[in-house]
Specification:
The protein has 102 residues and is mainly alpha-helical. It has helices spanning 2-29, 33-59, 63-94.
Length: 102
């Protein structure tokens, strides 16, 4: 049973690191702020989720795993919200000079 748990932990960690790596590549390679934000926020949310799930499996059912779960929920709620407001601000800054004032 312990071998199965260790294999699951390793798989989740590798997948989480893969998503972080893809997000970093997307940040470097994408042409504009909106594409960059899409690449990084989706990959960061997924990568953090997988790595924190691996940590929860590793620690077992303890207070520490409950704390990790609460942090994971916080990341799942705040990361998309922050990305939305950053995109809204970038959109307003981008089209601020093109709007006609009446």
């Amino acid at each position: 049973m312990q071998i199965f748990l260790n294999i699951m932990i390793i798989i989740l960690l590798i997948l989480g690191l893969f998503f972080f790596f893809v997000g970093a590549i997307g940040l470097i390679r994408m042409p504009d702020v909106f594409c960059r934000m899409h690449a990084t926020t989706k990959c960061d949310t997924m990568g953090a989720g997988l790595i924190f799930m691996a940590l929860m499996i590793w620690k077992g059912f303890t207070f520490t795993s409950l704390t990790i779960f609460i942090i994971l929920i916080f990341i799942w709620l705040t990361n998309p919200t922050a990305a939305h407001y950053i995109a809204k601000s970038a959109y307003q800054m981008l089209f601020k000079n093109t709007e006609k004032k009446e």
